[in-house]
Structures are given as structure tokens and as C-alpha cells.
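Worked Example 4.2. Consider the chain below.
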Amino acid sequence: MPDIRLHDIIAALGGELHGDGNTRIQALAPIENAGADALSFVSHPKYRQSLLASKAACVIVPPDLKGVAIARGACIVSDTPYLYFARLTQFWRKAHEAQHSTPSPHGGIHPSAVVDASAQVHPSATVGPLCVVERGARIGAHTQLRSRVTVGHDCVIGQRCILHAGVVIGADGFGFARDAERWEKIEQLGAVAIGDDVEIGANTCVDRGALQDTVIEDGAKLDNLIQVGHNVRIGRNTAIAGCAGIAGSAVIGPQCTIGGGAIVLGHLEIAAHVHISAGTLVSKSIHKPGHYTGIFPLDENANWERNAASLKQLHRLRERIKKLESDAKP
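Applying the procedure from the previous section yields the following C-alpha cells:
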């Protein structure tokens, strides 16, 4: 692991250091189990007791924990500790690679990858082992395709993107028309267009559009095992956690977050700055920014069944109340 002094971190990332700048840091660790050679962070006052009990060599803290942190030991004060820690992890990785002579991928196509002659791969892009890049696809500068990524024909991946192992971009969307007792395939004639600085987690699938492209805008972040249906549009800097499902033709605005396991039904529109809790089923469009949750609470099964049975009677009970209120009017 890297052996870095605190003043090296401050020189690279800024922040307000309290303590000995020559203190050496050999690990990054969670606050609960950080050792005497580790750097950790606390982003919220509710972790005050964890901060006081920590043995970390130094802790990144917000301004309202500055006094507590200084009383405990060395600290770096930042208005945004979590963001500071994110940038620290990037600095840490680069330091590790420099010390161990293992530079980040700098472009090139692995011998086991299959790249169609008509595809365009920027010389600075990296195409990993067993990847497939089909005809007419385009891969932008400094983009990384990790192992076993498939980019379908005519799909476009922007600059500085990371597609993790097993990602499939541009499989056919799920489109079929009923013909009596059988299904007739609707050919998926669009593609997928992915902007710059997008990261897509392992085994996530983004389907090509039926007539127009499926679009993921700049800066979007998708976790593992997400299904993005055909003709979906995901706005810039929106983040979606694992196992979410976005059905066809849904439009998700910029700066949104969608929790793990959430489902967005097709042809819906979600406004900018909407935050959807994990496990929520979005069954109607959301036009107002805010935090939305639709989860039936966990309970013992017997209680859950009783409550579920009661829910089925709510409409009838509502009608009875409306009639009683109407009858009570003079």
C-alpha cells in the first residue's frame, strides 16, 4: 500500500490540516476499525461517538466536528468530507500505481477482443479481454471497456467512460406484437448513445431503441445488474443503484437518484432532482422534484397478510365514509 504523508494529501487536495503534516498514512479505512496508520472520514455529526472512539491517525471531518476532532487527534477539515474522501481514493490509487509500477490502462485492444473492422476505437481507449465491439460502433477517448463487454452495432460510447465486466450495450429491446397466439418480432432499428464520463456497473444491460436511440447522458452512473429498456433516456449526472429496472421509453431527468431494486414503468417521465427510495415501484410520472417512496413495510408474515387484506377494503370503506358525510350534511 502507499506510504503517504499528510502534507502530501493537503498539497494535492487542499483542506485544513490540524496535526503533524509529517504523519505517515499507510491505509484508508472505515472510522470503526481504522488503525493508527490509517486515514478515515466522518461526514455527519451522528457519528460523533465513532469519531471519539477511533484510533485512526487522522480523520476527515466537517466544520461542525472540528473541535471534537482536534481534541481526539489529527484531522483534516473539509466542507464536504465524503467528496474529499472520494478524491482521496483517486489520489491513493494513483500513488499506489506509481509506487508499484502498475499504471492505469493507457489505451489498446486486448488480443482476445473482437473488434469489427468498421468500428471506431479511439487510440487512447482500452478494450479488455474477450470484449466484442460490433460493426459501426464508436468508442471515445480514454474510455475503458473491462472484460467481456459487448457493444452492439452502431452504438456510441463517449469519452472517459468505464464499462465494467459483462456490460451489454445495444442488445435488442423487448419488442413484440401479438398475432393471435404467437408473437411477431419488432425489429429494433435504433442504437444506444452514451455520453461522456458515464460509468456502468458489471452485467448491466442497456437495450437499443426500436426506432430512436436509447440515450444515457453525460455523467450518469449506473450500478451492477441494471436493466435499461429500449428508448429510455437517462439525464445527466443521474445515479441508479443495483438491480433497478427501467422499462421502455421512460424518461428520467438530470440529477436524479434511484435506489437499488426500484422499478420505473414504461413511458413515464421523471423530473429533474427526483430521488426514489430503494425498492420503490414508480407507476406514474413524477413532475415535481423531491424524495419519493413506495414500499409496503416489512412485518411478520401473519401481520402482513392481515394488513394486505385490509388494504383491499380501503376503496369500499372510502365510499362508505363519503356516503356518511353526504348524509350528515344539512
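The chain has a mean pLDDT of 94. The CA atoms of residues 67 and 112 lie 56 Å apart. Compare this with Example 4.1 before moving on.
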